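dumping this here before i forget
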Amino acid sequence: MIWYTDPLTVATILLAAVSGIAIIVSVYTFYHTRSFETYSDLDTLYFSILSLGMEHPKFRDVRLTSNYKKTFNDPDELARYETYAFICWNFCVTIFDRRDKRILETWRPVFKVEANLHRCWFNDAENSDKFAASFRNWILEKFPTSIKSHQEQ
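structure:
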């Protein structure tokens, strides 16, 4: 008997094909949904960071943050700024750690802004061990901003 004339064989082959398609669609849907949720989560987190910045506008002013140890001479304000800068950089690490090229490209402008705003804090030797070497090297390679140009303004 030829396989395509046997109803049971045809049904088995069709069932296997439909199952295979269902698995492919499920995997695609999972990754697409995960990517959307990731972006949404990152967007919400960054909105919170910017909201903090609106409460403390000095922390979003590169003329002040580029020389933060002199600018924020009140110990409490200095501690708040250092914590804020750490939050901003940790947000960037969160994106970097996902190793998703599309997400990295989407958030590239944010990396650039945050690297520019908080580079002085990032470059301080006392903060170097707060981040993995792979992240530090990536930032230095992709965003080689010189803080001197801001201090001279």
